[in-house]
Amino acid sequence: MPEGSAPHSDREILEQLNRDYIASVQTSNVRRFDEILADEFYCSNPDGSLVGRAAFLEQTARPVTISGLEAIDVMIRLFGPPGRENVAIIHARTVYTSADGAAKSGRYTDVWARQNGSWLAVSAHVTRG
Fold this sequence. Notes:
alpha+beta, 3 helices, 6 strands, globular
């Protein structure tokens, strides 16, 4: 997509939202998460805990100890009537460097729903290797 152009298709919008989500994890960007998380958002953390939106925003506010977080092998699936899809599932693998300098990887699955014309994250499931 050319610099400065807005995404047009649902897939382009979701690709950008996915990039924003990963960047927000890396930079502890609570403000951006506040914009893209649905009120009913829940996240399954790598430690097995399940946190709601408020707790997720609190944990996001803490500085991260990883660096170089990147999403690869991103797969976006859209569901609903053709041209009116209202649910999307994003699967991807992550690679990053731990605080001790070790190369690490994980996976995530995010569920997005169209609400009032906008795509919002309603669920996330994160694993780390």
